[in-house]
Amino acid sequence: NAGVTQTPKFQVLKTGQSMTLQCAQDMNHEYMSWYRQDPGMGLRLIHYSVGAGITDQGEVPNGYNVSRSTTEDFPLRLLSAAPSQTSVYFCASSYTRTYGYTFGSGTRLTVV
Amino acid sequence: GESVGLHLPTLSVQEGDNSIINCAYSNSASDYFIWYKQESGKGPQFIIDIRSNMDKRQGQRVTVLLNKTVKHLSLQIAATQPGDSAVYFCAENQAGTALIFGKGTTLSVSS
Q1: Are B106 and B87 in contact (CB under 8 A)?
Q2: Sign of torsion, CA B51 B57 B63 B66?
Q3: Are A81 and A62 in contact (CB under 8 A)?
Q4: What is the least distance, in Å, from the CA of B31 to any CA of chain A?
């Protein structure tokens, strides 16, 4: 039981490049979310999903796309990276809405 | 603005003291609340949760209190230890969305 696995752990991108941050969970959780954490700030919700085939926007969705084709995976795509997207990204999953969310260890992204 | 926030950005206590970390929320539709602990370089770690039909919930050395009248949440840590040093976040949830976080309180425990 690996929990929530995020890859890569570190990434450096050039402005304008695209990439996908991977998130996978093996707990059969329906709920999955992506957050970004900037220095001195809390976690801000980017996108979330309440089940396979269902996604919705969070507080800061611009510049990011998601899809949920399987229960296990919830990738986050940066379409055209900008320096403002330099951050630490966390993925989380939960069995239900009112059940403790489990977080991955994060991806530290730098856009130069 | 944020729907969840914390009263103090930092809190310093002595080892063995009891710590109280506060959080105010503004969305009366929120019905589920969680406290997380985050150590440097790591993801948030679940501490304790509480539903809106409860006022108090206890765990091991931790207690969460919910006051829906004034929209206030607190985390009490008994006999604080150096290993409790971390950033603590409260988060809220309501139907139709995911967890929303506040900015966090940094707890420093000196021995």
Answers
A1: yes
A2: positive
A3: no
A4: 9
Distance CA A83, CA B88 (A): 28
- Mutation for testing the B interface, residue in A4, A29, A32, A43 having most B CBs under 10 Å: A43
Interface of A with B in 6-45 (CB under 8 A): 31, 33, 35, 40-45
Average pLDDT over residues A94-105: 92
Among A42, A48, A102, beta carbon nearest to B101: A42
B30-83, pLDDT tens digit by residue?
999 999 999 999 999 999 999 999 999 999 999 999 999 999 999 999 999 999
Backbone φ, ψ for residue A83 (5° rounding): -55, -30
Instruction: State the smallest CA–CA distance between residue B1 and chain A in angstroms.
Output: 10
Cβ neighbours of residue A39 closer than 8 Å, sequence gap 6 or more: none
Instruction: Name the DSSP letter for residue B3.
Output: S
DSSP annotation of A100 reads P
Tokens describing residue B100: 């929303």
